[in-house]
Task: structure prediction
Amino acid sequence: MVTVKLDQQEWVDFYAGKMMENLHAWQGPLGVDDQYKQLIKKELTSFFNDPLKRSLVETTY
Result:
């Protein structure tokens, strides 16, 4: 397995994109717009320096 080191902004952008892809793929009545991505990025920024939360995000997405 190849591991690529991402800086904080790259990591936040990557996983926010993955989360939005999953939400859009559900095609249900969620009605999630791209503004929600900003909220996801804010949360992910706080998760970056917390090893447990970061690991949870990386293993989930």
